[in-house]
Amino acid sequence: MAESDLLSSSSLQENASATASSPSARVPATFEGAAVAYGSLVLMALLPIFFGAFRSVKHHKEQRESGETPDIMSHRDAALFPIIASAALFGLYIFFQIFSKEYINLLLTGYFFFLGVLALCHLLSPIISSLVPAAIPNVHYRVQMVKLQTSGGNGADEDLINYSFSTHDLVCLLFCTVIGVWYLLKKHWIANNLLGLAFAVNGVELLALNNVATGVTLLGGLFIYDVFWVFGTDVMVTVARSFEAPIKLVFPQDILENGLAANNFAMLGLGDIVIPGIFIALLLRFDHSRSSGKSHVYFATSFLAYIAGMAATIVVMHVSKHAQPALLYLVPACVGATLGLAVLRRETKLLFQYEDSPKEEVEGEKKADKKAK
To answer: Which of 69, 113, 192, 290 could connect to 365 by a Cys-Cys bridge, CB 3.0–4.6 Å?
Structure first.
């Protein structure tokens, strides 16, 4: 998942409205329309977290079985991430102030088109493969490029490219490309959401935290980042409104009046899904490590806390009539509920001792990889 997906996606807010003096000013959303829009956004946020968390359990298991060395976010990485994110966000803001946003968005749209197609393929490949007619044979291929050792070399040949695919994968690629082209040409909100959901599911699945302490550090840093850039400046809101890429989920508040042609959007940044989502996925893996999947008590508690945090965000936003940094409510809800449950169950030490991949194990795998090379 691209880094910029997380950087410009931190507030749950209504889309920009034209000023009252403008002839194209949008009609304010009705209560029913707003309820449908925000209810749909919350549902779309929950789906990637739920399915991405369970996919992360499977992905982590496959990594361990294959002997693949996992990429682990260190405590230092987690602490520096909000600073790096802030620099990238402010850089985008300056770009939008200096250069025409049409040209910038044209470049970003092409970039996210390719990323979105690949993310959709990764997500939909098993589904589409099961739906492909039997008349289309599932022929497997492999593209391999190998760096040969010199005549006196003692090591094994090194794979530069080793990629396997099938005709069913090509059908999936074609289908996902059609969706990508639809977004590229029309910027339709449904196409945007399909790509955004694919990014979110892949992010929760693949961007793994190794332990709870690192997760708390990351969420705490991004909590401050989110609050500062939304309440302290207009940078976050400006970038979110100017950035035309599937890094946010949108849903029209006037869909009841205008159907699929509706254009008064509410939006939710992918960062408000992926950042808490990778923490919730870690808790699901912790549950599995203790009970082999028989109990999901930490996952369920944090998942319900996420729902409560989203509800609080929406309520405060409509009462205050101001864009809200969703992590202001989501981080205390998810972290607080998790730590509170651990205290009640007297498992705080056990929770913080858990690691997906112990440091010694990872270092051993890295040394083994170096020797193999």
So the answer is: 69
Q: What is the pLDDT of residues 25-78, one digit of tens each?
A: 455 678 899 899 999 999 999 999 999 999 999 999 888 887 777 777 888 899
pTM: 0.85
Residues 168, 138 contacting (CB under 8 angstroms): yes
Q: Please write the tens of the pLDDT for every residue from 81-112.
A: 999 999 999 998 998 888 878 888 888 888 89
Give the Cα separation of 337 and 272 in Å (integer): 17
For residues 135-144, one letter each, b for 16 or more C-beta atoms within 10 angstroms of the residue's C-beta and e for the rest, the string is eeeeeeeeee
Marked catalytic residue, from 5, 169, 226, 287? 226
For 13, phi and psi rounded to 5 degrees? -155, 165
| Cα(171)–Cα(169) distance, integer angstroms | 5
Of 169, 272, 287, 356, which one is the catalytic site residue? Answer: 272
Residue 271: closest CA among 231, 213, 212, 331: 331
> 């966000």: which residue's tokens?
89
- Answer yes or no: are the C-beta atoms of 85 and 218 closer than 8 Å: no
* Residue 272 designated active-site: yes
